[in-house]
Design a protein that fits this description.
heterodimer, A: 261 residues, mainly alpha, MetI-like fold, 12 helices, 0% strand, B: 337 residues, alpha/beta, D-Maltodextrin-Binding Protein, domain 2, 5-stranded mixed beta sheet, 14 helices, 16% strand, elongated
């Protein structure tokens, strides 16, 4: 344990390096835009790919509009993810405990991943109306698969010898589950959660595109139609920031919980 | 070895002689590549284009034309501004918005010179007029200038935007009213989706927006890059001439027009397309009187621009003469017969 702590880089440097790299990329992009390289050589005019400085200006100018809509989308992402988390963990547990159920439903779990969101979102909107319901459903659908599959893999990966040992100590099924299987599966579950949280924003956007009157997806649709490309890109940046922050949050939680393990 | 060399020499000689022969007999003309970005998948609005292509009128004009369909209707005008497409089909309001954003685009011909966008509700909704929309849900495509249409329409009926619930559904306009989730929708085209609804037995009440108070405008126009129009307009002129030929032919032969469009888009249903074609062809014919095919009326465009400024669709006034150019139009006009 102490060895791991000693090799872990200090918290400060762990974000400094990516931040510097990001700034380098932005700098190159800004240079390419302002020297006309993007427009002249690559045919990427300003209204197709705005310069970072322009995006930053619009982000500041329209900050309250973007913030209001970002908040709506954030709620959809977080609540939808939590729904998927509960359903996913429950499903994984059930499929782990019942051999029969697992063999019957695992292919269906995989199939749930293949439903094109762009097809199912409008259907959900017709069923559930234009409130937050269909957006939550789409986000939950997109998050369900990684959480379930990863957690199930984790539960199934338990060392059989450990289970045997617990049995020799007269441990009950429940104790085997909570003392051995859950801790083993925890890192896998977190893996699944991290993947889910990163793609959840995509689900929220598709849900909004199918029927909404607020949200970043709704704003992006309007901005695309009005050729306000800079604000469109600004919304994309905010969306990415939301995804990255949620990802980091899950990663922090993971470190805390696993350290305790 | 000698025999082999002789054989090779004979082969080469034969090829050389035959090549000389073909050179003088079969000269394939060099056609200029010309790309047109349509606003949507092939449909009756594009009858003139596809008939002209099918009949070889573009080839006769020396153009190798490709008609492309993006899935995002706001993309074509960007392609033209970026020089990636020679012409784009776009909408009069979008041309104005593009110019406001600094895109160098100019409208060079009318394709459909009247509004097609409509507000539709179903008979079963018991709505009798716009005033009856108070408290109801109205679905839109989420396009800001169409929100301005909605505001204008509501104002004329004594309502304000806060009297209705507006929801953006992207491309789910028809499902929204058919499912009853919305009581009215603004955005479907009366000659395409309107006909679709009628044929499916839904009993729609269809109101083109210019009948509800929005000033008239051209729903579909052809847009070109501004510098291109100034410096190298010849191929565009040739294209428009060929387009006029194709449109004239389509207007005279509706069944042929339907077959041509269906051949270009296998996903279309024959019966529906034929019905849509019947109401669309007179629009494409553009009864312009003495004016050339594709003519754009500067006064009428200016009226629309002024309305757009008043409704905050545009942040600054524009001059219609800067936005459009009739200089590339063919001089003929179509007799709708």
């Amino acid at each position: 344990m102490n060895q791991r702590n000693a090799r872990r880089p200090a918290a400060v440097t762990s974000w400094v390096l990516p931040a510097l790299f990001l700034m380098l990329l932005l700098g190159v992009w800004q240079l390419a835009a302002s020297t006309g390289f993007l427009a002249d050589r690559l045919g990427l005019e300003e209204f197709l790919v705005p310069a970072p400085v322009e995006i930053a200006e619009v982000l500041w100018k329209d900050r309250s509009l973007i913030a209001d809509n970002a908040w709506v989308t954030l709620i959809e992402v977080v609540v939808g993810f939590l729904i998927a988390l509960v359903l996913g963990l429950a499903t994984a547990t059930l499929l782990h405990l019942s051999d029969l159920l697992r063999r019957a439903s695992y292919p269906l779990v995989v199939a749930s991943q293949t439903i094109p969101i762009i097809v199912i979102a409008p259907v959900l909107v017709v069923w559930f109306g234009y409130g937050i319901g269909p957006k939550l459903a789409v986000v939950a659908l997109i998050c369900f698969f990684p959480i379930t599959v990863n957690t199930l893999d984790g539960l199934q990966s338990v060392d059989r010898d450990k289970v045997k040992m617990m049995r020799t100590l007269w441990a009950s099924r429940r104790q085997v589950f909570t003392r051995v299987e859950v801790p083993t599966a925890l890192p896998y579950a977190f893996s699944g959660a991290k993947i889910a949280v990163a793609v959840a924003v995509i689900g929220a956007i598709f849900g909004e595109w199918a029927g909404a009157d607020r949200g970043l997806g709704y704003l992006m649709l309007q901005d695309n139609a009005q050729l306000m490309t800079a604000r469109l890109f600004a919304s994309v940046f905010v969306l990415s920031a939301i995804a990255i922050s949620l990802f980091a949050l899950v990663a922090v939680l993971e470190r805390r919980l696993l350290r305790w393990r | 070895m000698k025999k082999l060399a002789l054989l090779c020499f004979a082969l080469v000689a034969a090829v050389a002689v035959s090549a000389c022969g073909t050179k003088s007999e079969n000269v394939t003309p060099v056609r200029e590549e010309f790309s047109v970005a349509l606003d949507w998948y092939a449909n009756p609005d594009h009858a003139g284009f596809f008939v002209a292509q099918d009949r070889g009128y573009f080839e006769d004009a020396g153009l190798d034309v490709s008609l492309d369909s993006p899935t995002d209707p706001s993309l074509p005008i960007k392609l033209v501004a970026a020089g990636k497409a020679d012409l784009a089909i776009s909408y009069e309001p979008e041309v104005l918005l593009a110019r406001q954003q600094g895109l160098d685009v100019v409208s060079v011909a009318t394709v459909v010179g009247v509004p097609l966008t409509s507000m539709i509700w179903l008979k079963e909704s018991k709505i009798r007029n716009v005033a009856g929309l108070k408290g109801k849900t109205i679905s839109t495509a989420g396009i800001p200038y169409q929100d301005a249409y909605l505001r204008t329409i509501l104002e004329r009926a004594g309502l304000s935007e806060s009297d209705v619930k507006k929801v953006g559904v992207g491309q789910g306009l028809l499902p929204s009213i058919v499912s009853g989730r919305a009581q009215a929708t603004l955005g479907p085209l009366w000659n395409i989706e309107g006909v679709d609804l009628k044929l499916s037995g839904q009993n729609p009440v269809i109101n083109p927006v210019d009948q509800l108070g929005v000033p008239t405008y051209s729903e579909l126009v052809l847009v070109a890059n501004g510098s291109r129009v100034a410096e190298d307009p010849e191929s565009i002129e040739l294209f428009l001439k060929a387009l006029e030929r194709g449109t004239r032919e389509a207007v005279a032969m509706p069944n042929m027009a339907t077959e041509t469009v269906i051949a270009a888009n296998k996903a279309l249903d024959r019966k529906t397309t034929a019905a849509q074609m019947r109401v669309t062809l007179p629009l494409l014919a553009q009864n312009n009187g003495e004016k050339p095919f594709g003519y754009m009326d500067t006064t009428r465009w200016q009226k629309f621009i002024d309305w757009a400024v008043e409704k905050d669709v545009l942040t600054a006034p524009q001059r219609a003469v800067d936005v459009l150019s009739n200089a590339l139009l063919p001089t003929g006009r179509i007799d709708p017969g």
